[in-house]
Amino acid sequence: MKLFYDKTYSPSNATFDTHAKARLVADRAGEIPGVMLKSPRPATVEELNEIHHARYVKAVMTGAPADLASSNGFEWSPDLRDSVLASTGGIRDAVMAALNGDGIAGSLSSGLHHAGYRQGRGYCTVNGLALGALAARRNGAKRVLIIDFDAHCGGGTASIIEGMSGIEQIDVSVSAFDRYEQTEHARLWMSDGESYLHDVTHALESVLHPSNIDIVIYNAGVDAHEHAGGLSGITTDVIRQREAQVVDWSRSHGLSMAFTLAGGYSSTAFGMEQVANLHTLIIQAANSVYSKSA
């Protein structure tokens, strides 16, 4: 299984988990039999312009105007720009690898689904989920499903894909941040610690004619976990069951899948090493299930 990662995902001065954790996850993933780490081709300005306003793309690339360049919540720097371009390209490359015969691929990317058309938001700079979905459509996929199980709502993605033919989203969240009104193409469930796995099941079962989907793009945030930013009752075992359920559902319908890390945050009581361990659960589940059925 190809897993896209480059050292630029985690700039040397990165302290926030969105960027810093990728190198820890890469270390663990490299020890999993059958997983192959690959450097992606960075996203281009032309690709970014397909999902974001040109003025915002220019700000991401140059740092000016400063307020727009830092609308994601980070101070702009060339290292941050290069990190975003690499990790966004990783999602696109994972999508293309999955579509073009691999069946499954991933990217150790985070900071995606809150970025809207005109600016960043919530520590998300470029909406790599929308970019990956559009890349899939441009390369022959007729139907793309984004599964967003990050703790927070994927309002940025929902707004960008509105009106894009052939792209839809299901979203189970435990935080109302970036909440949005449901549409035909973006459906949202607000969940809690008790009903979480039930709501995940309900969301997956709500997908009509799943065998018609060409590729799933899975935003596999672990910040729903009770110690990584989420709610009491959503334990490591719950996250493990969720990852297995998503992968099994996708494979049972014969679907290709590209996944990405998304949210998951450390604290004094729950270190970044533990967060990285949570993120390996989707890598292990995907590698195991797809390799057995290849």
Short description:
Helices cover 42% and strands 13% of the residues. By secondary structure, the protein is α/β, with parallel strands linked by helices.
Low-confidence blocks of residues: none
Bin the strand percentage: 5-15%
Q: What distance lies between the first and last C-alpha atoms, to the nearest angstrom?
A: 11 Å
Question: What string, H for helix and E for strand, traces the elements in order?
Answer: EHEHHHHEHEHEEHEHEH
Could you describe the largest sheet, including whether it forms a barrel?
8 strands, parallel
- Assign an overall shape: globular
Please count the helical segments: 10
**Structural class based on helices, strands and sheet pairing:** alpha/beta
Number of strands: 8
Question: Tags for this entry?
Answer:
294 residues; alpha/beta; eight-stranded parallel beta sheet; 10 helices; globular
Characterize the structure shown:
There is one protein chain. The protein has ten helices and eight strands. The protein is an alpha/beta fold. Helix 7 (155-161) links the parallel strand 4 and strand 5 (167-173). The mean pLDDT is 95.
List the helices and strands and how they pair.
Blueprint: E1 2-4, H1 17-29, E2 36-38, H2 45-49, H3 54-62, H4 66-69, H5 78-102, E3 104-107, H6 128-138, E4 144-148, H7 155-161, E5 167-173, E6 186-190, H8 196-205, E7 215-219, H9 236-252, E8 256-260, H10 272-293
Parallel strand pairs: 1-2, 1-3, 3-8, 4-5, 4-7, 5-6, 7-8
Helix pairs in contact: 1-10, 5-6, 8-9, 9-10
